[in-house]
Amino acid sequence: MSEETTPPDAPGWTAIDQAVGSLYPGQVPHQFASERPYELDGQAPLPAITVWSSKAPDSWHFVSYGLSELFEKTSPEPSVSGFGIELTLRVPRGDADPHPPVWGVSLLQTLGHYVLSRRKGFDSGHTIDLEGPIDGSSAPPSALTGIVCLPDPLLRQISTPYGSVLFLQLVGVEARELKVMDELELERQVGLLADIDPSYMTDPRRESWLDHEERAKIVRRYKLGIGLE
Question: Which residues partner with 33 through β-bridges?
């Protein structure tokens, strides 16, 4: 993939740029454009992924382009653009990190390929077992091997010339956390993540919530439904 600029005559693309750009005024993002967009035999079927430098907390904010309609209206539902979603991801950014981690781009492309090949999008509350470390690491491997899809707390849903687009943030979880999320309804998934980390950060190096005294208490409370009404 290469870093390029926004193509002309792409109203859907422009709408996404404007939505994300409003969060980061004046910033020029890292943009990774596919050389073979929408070709499912390649590793990068999504036309592009932008990555923005965010603060409070310091992080990289990844945004996909290509699960909604970017160039023209082709889907039959006038109120929804394409699959009605784009994917986002937030990962820690250190002072010595001038470039976003490549594994984040690869993850969004992999899940984009999944959606495009099956012609079926994800929805809020969906969980995914990656069957391996989220960042592809091996020495030592990340404990995060699953994903929960929740509405991006900053971007949410936007209207474009081709219909609505919901930004779904991918939140990395380890196997025990994934099991907990599978057992919770969407409202409690959102509440649990908001109590543990309102930014929905995916840190491949973090310890499990269940091995952290205070966060384990939060998980138990949501599993039991104590004090949530």
Answer: 2, 48
Task: Give 5-22 pLDDT, tens digit per residue.
Answer: 567 689 999 999 999 999
Q: Across the chain, how many H-helices and E-strands are there? A: 5, 9
First to last CA, the chain: 47
% of the chain residues with pLDDT over 70: 95
Domain annotation covers residue 185: yes
- Amino acid occupying residue 166: L
pLDDT category at 226 given cuts 50, 70, 90 is confident
Element (H or E) spanning 186, and its range?
A: helix 186-196
**What is the Cβ-side half-sphere exposure of residue 160, based on CA atoms within 13 angstroms?**
30
* CA dist., res. 147 & res. 33, Å (int): 24
Residue 229 lies in a domain: no
Give the domain range for residue 65. 2-224
CB 12 within 8 A of CB 69: yes
Q: Structurally, how many domains does the chain consist of?
A: 1
Outline where 81-149 has alpha helix (H): 102-118
Residue 217: both structure tokens together: 């208490």
pLDDT of residue 53: 96
Q: Measured at the alpha carbon of residue 202, what is the angle toward residues 197 and 37, in degrees to the nearest 5?
A: 135
Does 114 fall in a domain? yes
**Residue 158 pLDDT class (50, 70, 90 cuts):** very high
DSSP state of 136: -
